[in-house]
Amino acid sequence: MDAVEKAGSGHPGTAMSLAPAAYLLFQRFLRHDPSDPTWVGRDRFVLSAGHSSLTLYIQLYLSGYGLTLDDLKSLRQWGSLTPGHPEHGHTVGVETTTGPLGQGLGNAVGMAMAARRERGLFDPDAPEGESPFDHMIWCIASEGDIEEGISHEVSSIAGHQKLGNLAVIFDSNHISIEDDTQIALSEDIAKRYEAYGWHVLTVDWTAGEHYHEDVQALSDALEAAKAETGRPTFIRLRTIIGWPAPNKQNTGKAHGSALGADEVAATKRVLGMDPEKSFDVPAEVLDHAREVVKRNRELRAEWDKSFESWRAANPERAELFERMSARRLPDGWDKALPTFEPGSSVATRKASGEVLSALAPVLPELWGGSADLAESNLTSMKGEPSFIPDEYQTREFPGNRYGRTLHFGIREHGMGAILNGIALHNGTRPYGGTFLVFSDYMRPAVRLAALMKLPVIYVWTHDSIGLGEDGPTHQPVEHLWALRAIPGLDVVRPADANETSAAWKVVLEHNDRPAALALTRQNVPVYDGTGDPAKVARGGYILEDASNGQPAVVLIGTGSEVQLAVEAREALEAEGIPARVVSMPCVEWFRAQEPAYRQTVLPPAVRARVAVEAGISLGWREFVGDAGEVLSLEHFGASAPYKTIFEQFGLTADRVVAAAKASLAKTGADKGETTGN
Predict the structure, then answer these.
(1) What confidence tier does 670 reach under pLDDT thresholds 50, 70, 90?
(2) What is the reported pTM?
């Protein structure tokens, strides 16, 4: 109450009513070491109800993670360690950035999946519960989390995958910002989770004549969650928000605003506390809470012994564990990358699929799948088993619980959040595929991946009107620049198969950001000079220079439109106009280069420029300048064979030539001819 009151804003009510649950979890159930917050053997805790950030911050303070009372006093203030919603990498002990509701629940599912995959890599034969890689993923979710559609997607996957290492405490307080949730929510959520295949328990603190915070009943439920190894557990905890505030408990006002000085004082009186004192934590209370460090050091000592025993018995797996935990790629791994014959014609999605299959033997940390589009995205590594309980494998996709190929079903939104959870867990490199147009369904999770600097890889195929007959609903137009607008996301649109292979190398060598590969459905020509990862890593490079080395015009292309630039250059050169082709697979990488390099590729003196991309022009003006032209698509697509669509919408080499001449004219290079008059 004091923290929100001092800040003047925040969410006190849920943190108040969940205080007993959070304290119980951190003190008695969560396996953690406040002196080593990144201990690999720890349980993970996800506060999906990120608006109730104090639920987490107060336990981090009480448990000894380094937060102080002054940090709690600085809640939601500039430069504080206690922002309005928990941020991974900003505050020690925060496992993931939460706030957008439902995302944290998806992260928790991803963490549980990653824990199982990692156990399969490092210690698959150990009896249940006896491996140093066995641990729990605990999550607190709110009604807001459960209402968001993403909760259905990730909870359905969790039940299907039988993630017995996952337990969710669902705070059922029947209050949200618009007060009583009855105005918008009436389903039986416990039955919903039973239908998903979860182990469902109910603890109702309102069941008696008077409200009773029955900590023992919750403790029994948490014990039952740990004992259930064949299903995820969903604990419906019925609480009263804002308890025991005498006037604002059980109201929407307690959810998202300061209670006010009078109500805070009245609540302290109910609790037998001095209403004149703020942020009052008696030394004996703090000493008692910090005893959790001693309990967990004993658990840590037992784990260390188990881990060292495993390490001694499994030296090769231990070496893999150390490498993966450091996100260090093995020496010479890139020698496995395939190359493609110049002059051939290959869809970049096909090239990407061959890259994945080639890397499977050398990068066991790389795993992923698709939102039911494996045959289109080509995201299945050849010969690799699916990640699935044995009884759910199919003839087409054999597999086991420790498999590698992920099947997200038609759940892009959930896939995005799960990929983030996998990347957060410890060292594996996840990828997920769908059509580029459906990246819209993933965007909240993609944004959070960028915010957290997670090395998640998106394989987004069918990247333009080039997908053809499926028509405008499936043809991305605005997506490339909409995605490029996300700070920290690398959007990579390779020109051909070799550039695709090189792009995979560059992406895998980045550990500090997500990357999206935008790949063609249709075949595109393979050129000389596109397979050098050092060039591709620059984001933009000279693919074909002017015949005299002094271009009059620069043609910039991405993806399948690079071929239009190449054909246009040939036509311009035939007319005596020196032209340079620049392939720019990644705007973000190009922007990051030193100015001297950028000027070498795009000389400031050459003002005649054309950018060609089968999408909106937004953003290209930065690269073509005031005299440049952009050949783009400023409207939705159509249903027809792709060659017809490109022709009818004017995305042709002839149009690139015309645009080049128009740009030259703007610079005054078009002098015309004497008429004789």
Answers:
(1) confident
(2) 0.98
Q: Where are the beta strands (DSSP E) in 315-473?
A: 345-347, 366-370, 386-387, 399-400, 405-407, 429-435, 457-461
Kindly indicate the confidence band of residue 373, based on its pLDDT and cuts at 50, 70 and 90: very high
Alpha carbons within 13 angstroms on the beta-carbon side of residue 675 total 1
CA distance 231 to 246: 40
Q: What does the pLDDT look like over 463-475, one tens digit per residue?
A: 999 999 999 999 9
- Given this model, what pLDDT does residue 677 score? 54
Q: How confident is the model over 615-639, as a mean pLDDT?
A: 98
Within 10 Å of residue 672's Cβ, how many Cβ atoms? 6
**pLDDT, tens only, 567-586:** 999 999 999 999 999 999 99
**Tokens read off for 593:** 């280069």
**Cα angle 321, 322, 327; round to 5:** 95
CB 158 within 8 A of CB 112: yes
Residue type, 340: F
Whether 461 contacts 476, CB under 8 Å: no
Residue ranges in 393-521 assigned as alpha helix (H): 412-425, 439-452, 479-484, 497-508
Of residues 412, 563, 582, the one with CA closest to residue 497: 563
The secondary structure element, H or E, covering residue 543 is strand 541-544
Per DSSP, the three-state class of 640 is: coil
* Residue in the structure block whose two tokens are 């909870």: 155
DSSP symbol at 298: H
The tally of CA atoms less than 13 A away on the side-chain side of residue 348 is 35
- Preceding amide of 244 cis, omega within 30: yes
Pair 258, 2: CB distance under 8 Å = no
Under DSSP, the state recorded for 335 is: G
Strand partners, 583: 541, 557
The answer to whether residue 330 scores a pLDDT higher than 60 is yes
Residue environment code for 439-455, b if the CB has 16+ CB neighbours within 10 A, otherwise e: bbbbbbbbbbbbbbebb
Per-residue pLDDT tens for 229-247?
999 999 999 999 999 999 9
């609540």: which residue's tokens? 267
Q: Are 496 and 525 in contact (CB under 8 A)?
A: yes
* DSSP character string of 240-276: -TTTT-TTTTTSHHHHHS---HHHHHHHHHHTT--TT
Annotated active-site residue in 87, 153, 412, 567 = 412
What integer pLDDT is reported at residue 675 of this predicted model?
Answer: 66
Q: Is 412 a catalytic residue?
A: yes
Tell me the C-alpha distance between 640 and 471, whole Å: 7
Dihedral sign (CA 17, 21, 23, 24): positive
What whole-number distance in Å separates Cα of residue 132 and Cα of residue 123? Answer: 8
Question: What count of other Cβ atoms lies within 10 Å of the Cβ of residue 64?
Answer: 18
**What are the pLDDT digits (tens) for 110-131?**
999 999 999 999 999 999 999 9
pLDDT at 184 over 60: yes
